[in-house]
Description:
- By secondary structure, the protein is an all-alpha fold.
- Helix content is 56%, strand content 0%.
- The longest helix is centred in the middle third of the chain and has 25 residues, at 31-55.
- It is elongated.
Amino acid sequence: MAANVTLPEALPPLPTYELTEVSSLIPGVDDFYVSLMAPVVAYWIVSGIFHFIDVFDLFPQYRLHTPAEITSRNRASRYEVFRDVILQQIIQMGVGAVLAFLDPLSTGARRSMMSQSGRRA
């Protein structure tokens, strides 16, 4: 039985590459803060769209449940939902910040450390 083995000398050479630092996604705002705020902003934009559709009763033919059924089943007030969403987003941003601080340094941070210390990181 023959083994399917690729010898290292049969492989083509790897292309050369150079890492370059890219600019921030939003000028003037560090990407760290963008990564923390983007999910929160996206949630509130989408939530606002659905709230707008609900308040103005748009697309009633596509509703899964009638308004009477929703009111009878809904036991949480808008305030309770708002409070719990804010709490969840605070926890989400806190965990995201801790994980970002514990994450190994990015290439840009290594490069700035190299230029400050004069040696490789």
